[in-house]
Structure formats: structure tokens, C-alpha cells
Amino acid sequence: MKISHTVLLLAFLIHWYGLYAQSRWIDIGPTGGSVNSIKCFPTKNEILLSGLHIGGLYRRTNNGENWENIFTDPVYDIAITDDSMVYVASKAGLFVSN
């Protein structure tokens, strides 16, 4: 009976490791706090916006190598229209890019 418990435990660990190995994540930034929202431009997939609770709004244009801070208030949500207007909901109110 002891052997069967060991075999079951070993089988469980092998299965769990296989699931874990397939779900590894890579941190692409930006750093600065909790990410509240993330959006891609509908027509420009290479541009990614990330809204952070601490740090504001960041823009990535080069596959995540560099992030540019473009708005410093805490960001709760981001909306992007089809004509590339960016709306940001923050602690200070609702803002739109110009």
C-alpha cells in the first residue's frame, strides 16, 4: 500500500510539473505598480499602452524593450477609438489625447 501512495505522489508531481512548465510567463514591464489596464491600438499592433496605479500611462513601441511614460496620474482604464484617440480614466478625471 505504501508503494502505491508513492507512485501516486510521483505521478501527481510529474503531471503538475508538466502543467507548470507550459505556463511560464515573461515580465515585459513596465515596472511601477499594479497594472490596471492594457490596450493595443486597433490598427497598430506594435503600440501597446499600459495603465498603472502608480506610475501612470506607459507606451511601448518596440516589442517591450523600452516603455515611455506619457501620463503620470494613476490610471484605472484605457480606451482607444478606431481613429486612434486615447481616453484615460484616472483619479483626476477622464482625459483624451490630442
Please explain how this structure is put together.
This protein has 98 residues and is α+β, with helices and mostly antiparallel strands. 21% of the residues lie in helices and 37% in strands. The chain is built from one helix and seven strands. It has one helix at 2-22; strands at residues 35-40, 48-52, 56-60, 67-71, 75-80, 86-90, 93-96. A four-stranded antiparallel sheet has the order 1-2-3-4, with no helix packed on it. Strands 5-6-7 form a three-stranded antiparallel sheet, with no helix packed on it. The radius of gyration is 21 Å and the shape is elongated.
The SSE string, one letter per element, is HEEEEEEE
Structural class by SSE content: alpha+beta
Helix content: 10-25%
Strand content: 35-45%
Main β-sheet, spatial strand arrangement? 1-2-3-4
Low-confidence stretches: none
Count the helices. How many?
Answer: 1
The number of strands is: 7
The CA-CA distance between the termini, in Å, is: 72 Å
Provide mean pLDDT, rounded. Answer: 80
Radius of gyration: 21 Å
